[in-house]
Write a structure and sequence with these properties.
This protein has helices at about 5-10, 20-25, 35-50, 90-100, 120-135, 150-160, 175, 185-195, 210-225, 250-265, 275-280, 305-315; strands at about 50-60, 105-110, 140-145, 160-165, 200, 205, 230-235, 270, 295, 320. By secondary structure, the chain is α/β, with parallel strands linked by helices. The protein has a single domain, classed as TIM Barrel (Alpha-Beta Barrel). Strands 1, 2, 3, 4, 5, 6, 7, 8, 9 and 10 form a ten-stranded parallel β-sheet that branches. It is globular, with a radius of gyration of 19 Å. Bound molecules: iron/sulfur cluster. The site of iron/sulfur cluster (SF4) has 9 residues, from loops.
Length: about 325
């Protein structure tokens, strides 16, 4: 049996795990899974105690995207029957922040489909962010696609705290998932937001026919990018998308992936994101031993579980909601 606790101690002393140890985590026998989770929790507890951060999304613009990301129901190539609409008005975005605040969400994520924001869209978002910041003590994360440096600056000046732009998969696997932009385009946007002092949020989607080496490469790439927040999505293959029918995940493997990301990115916010309910299923609560953050409410085009069930799950675990502190 692997001594997971000694690997966790090594990580807490600042060392990286080896590739062999990373493979062992992903291939951990299920009879050792509780021991692996315990060790991952040892690391998580060191940095975050038993606190859980909540994030809530508003999809301010849906569908109509010219890109061809294979997992995405909003892509030009998807035939999924989703709602399609242009950018919402400022008032609706501000109202969403009120809802997020009432559900004790520390972060409100303003998301829009598309390759990147138009000037009009950016103006709506920045006006909404300024108003939200005057009214609520809540962290704002924007997710608007690829950015130019001046757009990143404008978001920073409006008060955006965090910007999400996922690497999604490994550099090696990226062209199997999308060809309308490159892995380097994605990394460049993360770097641009960092350069203007916005906290970078960048994560992945697991279950897109990648290899275990790809999963390890993703975790290491995010460490190299120094992403403060790492959303881990588990593919929910929506009918009509290019990845329709892909079904590679099971709950115990998802837990091992979360542990891997904790061991490689020990001090970072690791968020169980899209696909949590259908892929972790009855094991969802165990995901909060390696991860310290979840989305509440709905995702971009799919329903999540009711916000209050998540509050109950956290309470049942004996964990606590990490209500927003703007300086963390
Ligand atoms: S992930 Fe974003 S860029 Fe890709 S198709 Fe979906 S909305 Fe467009």
């Amino acid at each position: 049996m692997t001594n997971w606790q000694s690997i966790a101690e090594k990580v807490l002393h600042g060392a990286d795990i080896t590739d062999l140890e990373a493979f062992h985590i992903l291939e951990c026998p299920n009879k050792e899974l509780l021991s692996l989770l315990h060790s991952a929790y040892h690391i998580r507890e060191h940095y975050f105690g038993n606190r859980v951060k909540l994030n809530m999304i508003i999809n301010t613009k849906s569908g109509l995207c010219p890109e061809n990301c294979g997992y995405c129901s909003q892509s030009r190539d998807s035939t999924a029957p989703i709602k399609k609409y242009r950018m919402m008005d400022k008032e609706t975005i501000v109202q969403g922040a009120k809802n997020a605040h009432e559900l004790q969400s520390g972060t409100y994520c303003i998301v829009a489909s598309g390759r990147g924001p138009s000037e009009r869209e950016l103006n709506i978002v920045t006006a909404a962010v300024k108003e939200i910041k005057q009214q609520y003590d809540i962290r704002i994360c924007a997710c608007l696609g690829l950015l130019k440096p001046e757009q990143a600056r404008k978001l920073k000046d409006a008060g955006v705290d965090r910007y999400n732009h996922n690497i999604n998969t490994s550099e090696n696997h990226h062209s199997s998932i999308t060809t309308s932009h490159s892995y380097h385009d994605r990394v460049a946007t993360v770097t641009k937001v960092k350069n203007v002092g916005i906290s970078p949020c960048s994560g992945v989607i697991v279950g897109m026919r990648e290899t275990k080496q790809d999963v390890i490469d993703m975790a290491r790439a995010l460490k190299a990018l120094d992403a403060d927040s790492i959303p881990i999505n588990f593919l929910h293959a929506i009918d009509g998308t290019l990845l329709e029918g892909t079904n590679e995940l099971n709950p115990t493997y998802c837990l091992k992936v979360l542990c891997l990301f904790r061991f490689i990115n020990p001090s970072k916010e690791i968020r169980i994101s899209g696909g949590r309910e259908i892929n972790l299923r009855s094991l969802q609560p165990l995901g909060l031993y390696p991860a310290n953050s979840i989305f509440i409410g709905d995702y971009l085009t799919t329903r999540g579980q009711e916000g209050l069930s998540d509050h109950q799950m956290i309470e049942d675990l004996g964990f606590q909601i990490d209500y927003v502190t703007m300086d963390d």
